[in-house]
């Protein structure tokens, strides 16, 4: 029996999370992508805290009339800006079981442009 789309993503996500964890010195950038929006947060898994978060529902991102790909890049730049203010410059990238193309790649490129290293 074939996996459903959600079950397949969960299986991939678990295998990714075995190798990627967020520490205080190098937190994890976690991504969630819905059909309409994209969310990103930087997490310290040791303490169990979200350090910085950004999404396509933030006022500065929703103000722009652009497509989902461009909004993902703006979210990446926004999370990078917030992270640099919080003193975070190096992260581990957790794509959350999504393929690394489209909006996920756009968000990652935006975060790199914003100054994050991963």
SS elements, strand count: 4
What class, by secondary structure content? Answer: alpha+beta
**Helix proportion range:** 40-55%
For the termini, the CA-CA separation is 37 Å
Uncertain regions spanning at least 5 consecutive residues: none
How big a fraction of the residues is strand? Answer: 15-25%
Overall 3D shape:
globular
Mean pLDDT rating = 93
Topology order in helix (H) and strand (E) letters = HEEEHHEH
Number of H/I helices:
4
Write down the Rg.
14 Å
Show the helix and strand layout:
Layout: H1 5-19, E1 28-33, E2 38-44, E3 49-55, H2 59-62, H3 68-85, E4 92-94, H4 103-114
Parallel strand pairs: 1-4
Antiparallel strand pairs: 1-2, 2-3
Helix pairs in contact: 3-4
Describe the structure concisely.
The protein has four helices and four strands. With 118 residues, it is an alpha+beta fold.
Keywords:
4 helices, 118 residues, single chain, Nucleotidyltransferase, domain 5, alpha+beta, 4-stranded mixed beta sheet, 5S rRNA binding
Describe this structure in words.
The chain is α+β, with helices and mostly antiparallel strands and 118 residues long. The chain has one domain: Nucleotidyltransferase, domain 5 (2-Layer Sandwich), CATH 3.30.420.100. It has 4 helices and 4 strands. A 4-stranded mixed beta sheet has the order 3-2-1-4. The mean pLDDT is 93.
């Amino acid at each position: 029996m074939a996996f459903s789309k959600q079950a397949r993503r969960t299986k991939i996500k678990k295998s990714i999370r075995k190798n990627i964890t967020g520490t205080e010195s190098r937190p994890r950038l976690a991504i969630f992508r819905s059909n309409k929006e994209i969310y990103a947060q930087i997490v310290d898994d040791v303490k169990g805290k979200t350090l910085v978060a950004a999404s396509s529902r933030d006022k500065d991102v929703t103000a722009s009339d652009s497509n989902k790909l461009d909004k993902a890049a703006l979210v990446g730049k926004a999370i990078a800006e917030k992270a640099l203010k919080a003193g975070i410059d190096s992260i581990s990238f957790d794509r959350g079981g999504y393929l690394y193309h489209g909006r996920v790649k756009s968000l990652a490129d935006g975060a790199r442009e914003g100054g994050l290293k991963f």
